[in-house]
Amino acid sequence: LRRAGRFDVTIHVPPPDAEARRAILQLELSKRSTSKRALEPHWLEVFAKEKLEGYTGAEVVAVVQMAAELTRESQEAEIDRQHLLSACERVPPCTLEQCQVHLQHGVPPSPLSLLPSPPPSPADSLWPSPRQYFVISSVLIVLFALVWQLIMHFDVDTFHWLHLPQ
Question: Membrane-spanning regions, if any (predicted)?
Answer without folding.
Answer: 133-151
